[in-house]
Amino acid sequence: MYWNKEAETMPREKLESVQLLRLQETVKRAYQNVAFYRDALDRRGIKPDDIRSLSDVSQLPFTTKQDFRDTYPFGLVAVPMNRVVRIHASSGTTGKPVTAYYTQKDLDVWAELMARVMTAGELRKGDIIQNAYGYGLFTGGLGAHDGAQLVGAAVVPSSVGNSRRQILLIQDLGVTALACTPSYALIIGETGRELGTDLAKTSKLRVGFFGAEPCSEPMRKEIEDCLGLKALDIYGLTEILGPGVAHECMNQRGLHLAEDNFLVEVIDPETGRSLPPGQKGELVLTTLNKEAMPVLRYRTRDIVSLYPDTCPCGRTFVRMTKITGRTDDMLIVRGVNVFPSQIEDALLRVDGLEPHYQIVVDRDSHLDELEVWVEVSEDIFTDEIAPLETLELKVRKELESVLGIWTRVRLVEPGTLERSEGKAKRVIDRRDLGKR
Ligand code: ADP
Ligand code: ZN
Q1: Whole-prediction pTM value?
Q2: How far is the CA of 270 from the centre of ligand 2 (A)?
Q3: Residue 100 Cα to ligand 2 middle (Å)
């Protein structure tokens, strides 16, 4: 099912000609209206007219998160401020938030992209969708809201938090779809169980739109089992738009990137060079259809690879793998690169563990120590030590085989690790403390 069949199934050749026109237009507007881009292009001796083919994008400068911070608050805005009708800010997971600006047309495009996301999950008029993304500066809340409303579904704007009320509404209203972070989806499932409500059996939930943070396959399975729905991964970022940049279809094999609106590159994060489909690298996005804040070659720091084949759903937009990590949440432990997602993957393969964990990195004399705290299922956490010791050994072995380094494991009681209603904070790095 498509929201905009013509766009979503556009033949490749046509798509590329649309992309080129939009790219040329975007570069022109950025050059004329944004001093930051004019200076950057001038420094490279490039004029907007030099962009004659899609591959010429590689001549353009990158934009980084730091550039957003340096030009904060209005430095990247390309329209008079009286044309801006909304301002959002990123969640600030990795530092000072950045702000994003939208004209009315930008909001219309955003709603359309989110309508495509939701239609891909078979949401339609008559559905009731509970939107438990945080409403406010965060793009998740209003982004999902506008898309669902455009589709014609009834939106329950529950926002994040108050899980008991969330469950009550899901049950009483016969809610059929849920939108929130995967962390929060788990909390809703867990709270249901505590209340003796098995949402998988008693609710009408059918589909979930979960994004804004990584979610491994085993974690997805866990969410699907405890809520009784199909969990679709959705991706987006404030600098580029918000949610709606990429999404899964019912095949759940890769996220389709809305290529009529974004030009996609995957680069080697070290050299900045472009990588062919299939190779893992940093996702770089150029907006092709944004008025208030066009962005050239944004380095997302998200690690993906592109699928070389087309999807049976008929969408011609390229698919990317689920995000396996951010270049900036990669930990270097004793010289080895470790992504929290690898740890999550390993943990959820072991029976008897709950999907709640925390990673603590510390330095013991001169050696990095990686410790993984993970909750154990209720039925295993008894007074007897033996089963726990066996389990701990199993977890250590699993982690070692995935990471290639030795780790410490601490099994903790169910319910003891801090829960997050937005994006989970998985890593505590104590190595930098006390340096100053
Ligand atoms: P912040 O960078 O402060 O977290 P945002 O709220 O804009 O700001 O978050 C965007 C980032 O969230 C993306 O760059 C990506 O790292 C992460 N993200 C968004 N959606 C997903 C997803 N489906 N899977 C994994 N990570 C995601
Ligand atoms: Zn598909």
Answers
A1: 0.92
A2: 31
A3: 29
